[in-house]
Amino acid sequence: MAEITNNQPNIATIGDDYATKYGFRDPEDYFHKGARGLNHEVVEMISRMKKEPDWMRQFRHDALDIYLAKPMPTWGNTELLNSIDFENIYYYIKPTEFQSTNWDDVPENIKNTFNKLGIPEAEQKFLAGVTAQYESEVVYHSFQADLERQGVIFLDMDSGLREHPDIVKKYFATVIPPHDNKFAALNSAVWSGGSFIYVPPGLDVKIPLQAYFRINAENMGQFERTLIIADRGSRVHYIEGCTAPVYSTDSLHSAVVELIALDDAYIRYTTIQNWSHNIFNLVTKRAMAHKNATVEWVDGNIGSRLTMKFPCIYLVGEGAKGEILSVAFAGNGQHQDAGAKVIHVAPKTSSRITSKSISKAGGRASYRGLVKVYPKAENCKISVECDALLIDGASRSDTYPTMEIDADNVRVEHEARVSKVAEEQLFYLTSRGLTEDEARLLIVNGFIEPFTKELPMEYAVELNRLIELEMEGSVG
Amino acid sequence: MITDTIDFRKTAKNEPEWLYKLRRDSWSAYHDSPLPDRVVHLWRYTPPEQFLINDPHDAMTAAIPMPKGNGHKIKTLTEVQAALGYNLSDMTTLTQLTPELSEQGVRFLDLATAIETGAGPVQEYLGKLISSDFGKFEAANMALWNIGFYLYIPDNVVIEKPIYLNRIPTGTNTMTRLLVVAGKNSQATLIDNYRDQAESAAGQFNSIIEIFADDHSRLRYVGLQDFSEKITGYITQRSRIGNQTDLLTVQSILGGTVSKVNTGTILDGRGGNSRIYGLLFGDNNQHFDLHTLHNHRSHEAYSNIDVKVVLKDKATSAYTGLIRIEEKTVNNEAYQENRNLLLNHGPKAESIPELEILSDEVRCTHGATMGPLDPDMIFYLKSRGIDYKQAVRMIVSGFFEPTLKNIPDDLHDAVNGIILDKLEKH
Q: What is the pLDDT of residue A15?
């Protein structure tokens, strides 16, 4: 409490420099800026330029056909979805022709962006390797030597495909096939960048692996493809964080993330999504947890205009565990359609979903979830908890949970609560000398604390700062 | 042609022009609308094809003739009843009301007769909560209904004893409606009992219930569906309550092969109070699909939903519930709870309790649980010398008890009896 008053003497001006701080925009300077729109020629061009093997080229073409054949979703925020102009999007841009391994080689304007975001410091302090996605290609990539020695593969997806084609071919699109949904098909056709991680058996990667994503061109879609494989008994924590400049026309971000946790393995995937408020963020994320494996999605959604993201875990091995912890913050004009899915396929599996959402200034936060237990998956335990906080009367909160239990001896608990900031709490805090703004901020921070405490320290700090920016001026 | 049949009703039954038009328009709405989209949660678990009207002409006209030489004995009001209404298998309806209530202006009669004689306000209410736009099968009912009941309670009239309604199938397609108009400060309890008789053939049963409860009234609606497993039931109910109005809705769904029930209250007045209790017990291959709605359109209203489901054998159930708090409303409270108890291997339960909150001055929670019998409870009861069967009986009774408490005493025993019967069956 004291810290807040001391460190933020003037809360009203916080975020005034948001546009210069986060909304900066570098002049576009690209080598291969493809044409707008999508057809087989574009797909062919992408695949050729990347010098991909034949199977991948074919995979892309097949995926494009699936994408073109599939109708747009008829559920969710169809109004916003149908406003996306797919013809007006660049499906591939390659900013520089070489892969940077040394920070000094990174072009100046790109470095500026990262400096403003504080990446190098974060790396120095906490991170094992940085794969920063700037535009559609990975430009900066460093890796700690000892991790490499241990056999951990941490590459961008394109290099992964080049250097480890066998592993990629074995696992790629096995968790999310192109026909899963329209946007997964789109990503499969035009994917570019993203991370590829393979952790060998029994290895515990002690330091979190991190990639920083960023969109920097108007109307440019980003279609990262991330594939993480944790071999038997290994452990890994991957962090994905996003910020994007503020732009005037809409941009599409449609990633596909596949996680595979083999027997006894552990994967945690942390995301902080803070796209600018004109970006459509339509992401498919899914994990397979094999015998006694654990998968955890920690998912924060603060930015974007419309996010549709439902991290999913298939518990396919006996004794597998899944946990999804998510926070959504919907401000003016935003719709955070986030949720979680857990599919129990094997017996004695357990899962827990915790979802927190905050809506303010006309924002809309939706929790859309699915818990499904297949007939053979006996003795499962499931718990779902959704809490929503409404900051003002113009905002909206929805909860759409679905529970389909087709097995015996399954215990499911679901609970949801929606309320506004409690008057008693506000009164108590203001009576202690906090302004109403500060009090609200404190309550909101307390509300999402179960989430922030799961984040590495610098992310927690960043998230708190973002919430502060978002909360600013919410009174009066 | 079905339109000929509708025309026939107009001339032979003296149906007024507005009703004729309503029927014709509703028929077009039914006929022209596509099947409900299975993507929406309301239809996710129950295929809609089975509710299509196979023979609309038959639905309107074909009745099961009364058995010969078994002249129907008119049931008379008992001590505990304020009114009694029922229909026979030949589509005739009979209603009785105590003379005192009749003197106070209460009307309880056949819906068609009420329209024909102008016994009370009908036109401004009929189809206003469940119009032909509501859904395909609701439109079918509006076009084809031929058994209807009408209850009108004037302002300030308090009916102490319950009103009983017994409804039975009349053929392969039964189309029935109930319209309740309750005035200011009125009070009543309505028991709506669906069951079929030994001679009933397999068929569909489509029932629409509209309840208008004006300011400060207090109503209880208790629905009890105990069809044999020959009947496919489709029941839609909507109530609209005014200022400081109190409505209790109980839906006991126990019978039928497939039973799709959609029940909901529009809280249209300040300080309204609506509680919906669901009591579902499925066995064999029964399939239940219950949807509840609480729509808060005004301020300071309270709503609570409590749906309890017990399943055994290969029974399946789906519960979908929506609480919607409209924009610019303040100080609403809404609660929703769905508990599912699966007694053995085989049954399936689905639960989708949804919230749509467009206002911040609100307190809203929902919860759902699903699980088998608690082995600890069984163990505890067994250790006290109670055998397994008796222990299950006690646990199930305890599970339903909070709901049963809201049902009038005589019905309480009847419902409990059905539940115990179902528990014994194998």
A: 46
Q: Tell me the three state secondary structure of residue A277.
A: coil
CA distance B59 to B173: 5
Q: What is the pLDDT of residues B29-84, one digit of tens each?
A: 999 999 998 888 889 899 999 999 887 877 777 777 776 655 567 778 888 889 99
Report A:70-99 residues touching B (Cβ under 8 A).
Answer: 74-75
Q: Are the CB atoms for A344 and A318 separated by under 8 Å?
A: no
> Percentage of chain B surpassing pLDDT 70?
97
Please tell me the distance from the alpha carbon of residue B265 to that of residue B260, in angstroms, as a whole number: 17
CB B219 within 8 A of CB B113: no
Nearest residue on chain A to B39, judged by CA atoms?
A75
Contact B350 A405 (CB under 8 A): yes
**Pairing mode, if any, of strands B147-153 and B163-167?**
unpaired
Chain A contact probe: residue of B327, B360, B374 with most A CBs at under 10 A: B360
Q: Is B311 on the interface with A (CB under 8 A)?
A: no
Cα A181 from Cα A341, distance rounded (Å) = 15
- Looking at this protein, which amino acid is placed at residue A33? K
Write the pLDDT tens digit of every residue in A6-60.
Answer: 444 454 454 455 455 555 455 555 445 556 778 898 889 888 888 899 999 999 9
Judging contacts by C-beta atoms under 8 Å, the chain A residues touching residue B353 are: 399, 401, 414, 416
Task: State the pLDDT at residue B180.
Answer: 97
Please tell me which residue of chain B has the smallest CA distance to A380.
Answer: B371
Whether residue A416 and residue B349 make contact (CB cut-off 8 A), yes or no, is no
